[in-house]
Amino acid sequence: MPQPIRLKDHEKDARQVRNRVVVGAVAICLLIIVLIARLYFLQVIQYEYHSTLSENNRVHVQPIPPTRGLIFDRNGVVVADNRPSFSLSMTRERAGDWEQVLDVIVEVLELSQEDRTLFERRMRQGRRPFEPVPILFELSEEQIARIAVNQFRLPGVEVVAQLVRHYPQGEHFAHSVGYVGRINEAELKVLDPVNYSGTHHIGKTGIERFYEPQLHGQVGYEEVETNARGRVLRVLKRTDPVPGADIVLSMDIRLQEAAEAALGGRRGSIVALDPNTGEVLAMVSQPSFDPNLFVTGIGFKAYSELRDSPDRPLFNRVLRGLYPPGSTIKPAVAIAGLDSGVVTPSTRVYDPGFYQLPNYEHKYRNWNRSGDGSVDLQAAIMRSNDTYFYDLAHKLGIDRLGNYLSRFGIGQKVSLDMFEESPGLMPSREWKRARYRQAWFPGETLILGIGQGYMQTTPLQLAQVSALVANHGKWIRPHLAKTVDGVPPVDPNPMPDIVLRNPGDWAQVSAGMQQVMHNPRGTAHKVGDTSSYRIAGKSGTAQVVAIKQGEKYDRSKLDERHRDHALFIAFAPAEAPKIAVAVMIENGEGGSSVAAPVAKAVMDAWLLGENGQLKTQYAPPVTAEAPARE
Amino acid sequence: MSNNFDRSISDEDVMRRRASLLQRLHIDGQLFLLLTVLAAGSLFVLYSASGKNVDLLLKQATSFGLGAVAMCVIAQFEPRFLARWVPLGYLAGVGLLIVVDVMGHNAMGATRWINIPGIIRFQPAEFMKILMPATIAWYMARHNLPPRLKHIAISLALIGIPFVLVVRQPDLGTALLVLASGAFVLFMAGLQWRWILGAVTAVVPVAVAMWFFVMHDYQKQRVLTFLDPESDPLGTGWNIIQSKAAIGSGGVFGKGWLLGTQSHLDFLPESHTDFIIAVLGEEFGLVGICLLLLVYALLIARGLVITVQAQTLFGKLLAGSLTMTFFVYVFVNIGMVSGLLPVVGVPLPFISYGGTSLVTLMSGFGLLMAIHTHRKWIAQV
């Protein structure tokens, strides 16, 4: 059938469009009536309601900031709480000429021009209209009285009581718990504006920063009726805020204080872990500072003093301090050697006082220039024999060595809940090619075997190495929080346990570390001799400046700040470890002589009762195996 | 139609006798008068809404001037001549939208602008508001009415491409307006009611799908807040609560010019752009808004008359769609500010501050004028 030819029928088209125009016109009329009905509803029927809302500005929505969660040590001692404090706040919209009002405030309280600039900056940060902006904190009684007397000259200015963070333990937890500070412009941009609408402070470092969402809580709000001056007359509706979660730290304030005392004012750091749980028992980075200074805003002068001090009190040595691990890495290297099968516990190496690579002239020196003779693995750990470990590292090669040390956490972040932890550095062939555009040299593997060279570790990583040897490779990330809101923190990214082909290798290394302390030839036997329980330990020295071939370390020639750092790792009781410690003393020189006594003092404080004997709960079980060899 | 034809002849006679300046300039006097009233009203309200900001007023006045020039220039063209260029314009518009899409994604965020520094800066999506109805009208005018399934499908594809591109910018408000302007052409072309009903029933599943796959969080938040503004009085609910309070507190006669507390105390956000009707409602009350609605209604009525009187199918469809879309602007804006509709970011035509949308709108009215003033009196015999 042929298709009918379609002609354009203009008249039909026009009729069609005209019909639709009529339909459209009717629809438009109806919708305009809907709009007018809506406006009639708002402007006539609800007029009273809306005019009270608006005309007198009577009803306000005010955010109620949640109370920040408290922080306790493991025994319930308060580490961070909130104290009422009076602050001066100003509402720009009510102040009229607010800059002039600022002048009056400065005059009444006899403040400096510098304070005025600060106030002005805070005022300009104001957020919501009619929101009071706090400009001065911790008013004294006298200041409150002066404001009250001059209130008539200060429109829009009021004294408000608010809760402000306080750290009753002062310097003790500055590097672990951290501190809160005023929210700055950059933070304001990324924060949830609703949840933080009533909050003026935010965690800046440490636990306060890491657990900020949990500590902060959920904002509440209330609708209040105010008079023309903005004074609240009554609360119409209130939704309570949800206070922040409390945090119980795994740290113990007594151990913390004992550790700080043991360090005795020297610059350095101490980490003590429970190797069975990963709990951080003490974390010292000295010198420290008073976190309370930062809460309401530290003055520029005070801050630059802290920042520019050569002792660097703001520097968190535990998490950010990078040091070559020195001989403290040897237990981990020994595990690598045993597990990969390049040595057995009875493999012996003859030490003439140095090590030479085949076909190379260079002599890699043992610290003991006269040599230790023929040494096996345990003796090598006991004597900290460099020659043995040069040989071991050479046999392993950089790839296997790097692989094992990475499994101990070197070169990566090990903690669960610490802010801005440094990953340190575990060098590899790829790393060196990317960094220096050079191939890896065999000699660099050798010095890695004794913890020198490119490798860099944090004291926290060394403590974790010690804990891993203590608990036979079971990985639990060190954490500061024992519970958050009653629940232990969960590790979202657990490290795989170090599983050895022969688990007995752990005992070999542990035995070597025990001989460091308890064998008369052990490098730290002077410290071990005084101990009533068995300690497994390893000393180390981190070079600050390189010593050239053939030169000798001569302390008298070196600047005090260029002397070696003293390192020591240990765990005890050796049979059933309850505490693992890493000590670093800046420019302390002697790992065994300077750092080891500090480590022992920390372990004593944790393990010994009042009578100087092991607390019963820490006593080694009777069935514990005797150490492999004396 | 014969009736109409007679009247046309007599109209033409009248025109020839009194060919006034306006007619020779191809300007429609009624539209021009109404637009002038709106422009004056806009500056009046804007002075109050912007907090007596004279710079802003001057900018807006300049935009009005630019818009008027665009309108008059467009009015000079023969609609048939314009129709010839529509397909090319459409392709160019879609091309620019694709450029924006690519650039925007490179810039890691939303970009709606094409910016050649120092030369020009514009939103291609704005052009689409004019090009979209023109394209569909051009396409529909080539076939018999009512449209057949094949033509509907092709039209929907033509509408769909720029719609999706604008949604991706992301600018849901403009995208919906572009969609509406195309859809109104189909409506004017006599799209069968069963298709319209079918489309309306299909909106529900499409809306659900958009919710889950297309809409950004801030857009979802707007819808949620619209459904229950009290749920978030400190955040997004703030705008709606405050604008309702502003309008409602105006009462029947309003608080008086420059006396609106809500806007002058900064309670009202975006008081000089999307939410300007709240200022009008607060300061001039129900009477003020009704007067504004009256001016809009007269403009729309004139647009519909032009639609009916247009001689070409292209002209009829385009004029009808432009007029209906204009009403959608008005309805969506007032609806959203008064809490009837979710906040989608559609300015109030001719009153809200903003140059780009002004120029687009006035170009649209330029087209209406072109359609109306270039009618041929003998051609159809």
TrEMBL record, chain A:
GO terms assigned for molecular function: penicillin binding; peptidoglycan L,D-transpeptidase activity; serine-type D-Ala-D-Ala carboxypeptidase activity
Stretches of the chain forming a coiled coil according to its record: none
Subcellular compartments: Cell inner membrane; Cell membrane; Membrane
Record's keyword annotation contains Cell wall biogenesis/degradation: yes
Domain of life, source organism: Bacteria
Provenance organism: Pseudomonas turukhanskensis
Function: Catalyzes cross-linking of the peptidoglycan cell wall.
Similarity-based family: Belongs to the transpeptidase family. MrdA subfamily.
EC numbers on record: 3.4.16.4
Transmembrane region(s): 21-41
Keywords, comma-separated and alphabetical: Carboxypeptidase, Cell inner membrane, Cell membrane, Cell shape, Cell wall biogenesis/degradation, Hydrolase, Membrane, Peptidoglycan synthesis, Protease, Transmembrane, Transmembrane helix
GO BP terms in the entry: cell wall organization; peptidoglycan biosynthetic process; proteolysis; regulation of cell shape
InterPro entries from the UniProt entry: Beta-lactam/transpept, Beta-lactam/transpept-like, PBP_dimer, PBP_dimer_sf, PCN-bd_Tpept, Penicillin-binding_protein_2
Active site: S327 (acyl-ester intermediate)
Catalytic activity: Preferential cleavage: (Ac)2-L-Lys-D-Ala-|-D-Ala. Also transpeptidation of peptidyl-alanyl moieties that are N-acyl substituents of D-alanine
Domain Penicillin-binding protein transpeptidase residues, every copy: 268-604
Main location: membrane
GO cellular component, one term: plasma membrane
Protein name per its UniProtKB record: Peptidoglycan D,D-transpeptidase MrdA
Stretches assigned to the Penicillin-binding protein dimerisation domain: 63-236
Pathway assigned in UniProt: Cell wall biogenesis; peptidoglycan biosynthesis
UniProt keyword Transmembrane helix present: yes
From TrEMBL, chain B:
Domain of life: Bacteria
The protein's name: Peptidoglycan glycosyltransferase MrdB
EC supergroup of this enzyme: transferase
The family this protein is said to belong to: Belongs to the SEDS family. MrdB/RodA subfamily.
EC number, UniProt record: 2.4.99.28
GO process terms (BP): cell division; cell wall organization; peptidoglycan biosynthetic process; regulation of cell shape
Keyword Cell membrane: yes
Catalysed transformations (reactions): [GlcNAc-(1->4)-Mur2Ac(oyl-L-Ala-gamma-D-Glu-L-Lys-D-Ala-D-Ala)](n)-di-trans,octa-cis-undecaprenyl diphosphate + beta-D-GlcNAc-(1->4)-Mur2Ac(oyl-L-Ala-gamma-D-Glu-L-Lys-D-Ala-D-Ala)-di-trans,octa-cis-undecaprenyl diphosphate = [GlcNAc-(1->4)-Mur2Ac(oyl-L-Ala-gamma-D-Glu-L-Lys-D-Ala-D-Ala)](n+1)-di-trans,octa-cis-undecaprenyl diphosphate + di-trans,octa-cis-undecaprenyl diphosphate + H(+)
Localization per Swiss-Prot or TrEMBL: Cell inner membrane; Membrane
Organism, scientific name: Pseudomonas turukhanskensis
Protein's membrane topology: Multi-pass membrane protein
Function: Peptidoglycan polymerase that is essential for cell wall elongation.
UniProt key word Nucleotide-binding: no
A GO term for molecular function: peptidoglycan glycosyltransferase activity
Gene behind this protein: mrdB
InterPro entries according to UniProt: Cell_cycle_FtsW-rel_CS (IPR018365), FtsW/RodA (IPR001182), RodA/MrdB (IPR011923)
Keywords for this protein: Cell inner membrane, Cell membrane, Cell shape, Cell wall biogenesis/degradation, Glycosyltransferase, Membrane, Peptidoglycan synthesis, Transferase, Transmembrane, Transmembrane helix
Gene Ontology CC terms, in alphabetical order: cell division site; plasma membrane
Matching HAMAP family: PGT_RodA (MF_02079)
Transmembrane domains' residue ranges: 31-49, 56-77, 83-103, 149-166, 172-189, 196-214, 284-305, 317-344, 350-371
Associated pathway: Cell wall biogenesis; peptidoglycan biosynthesis
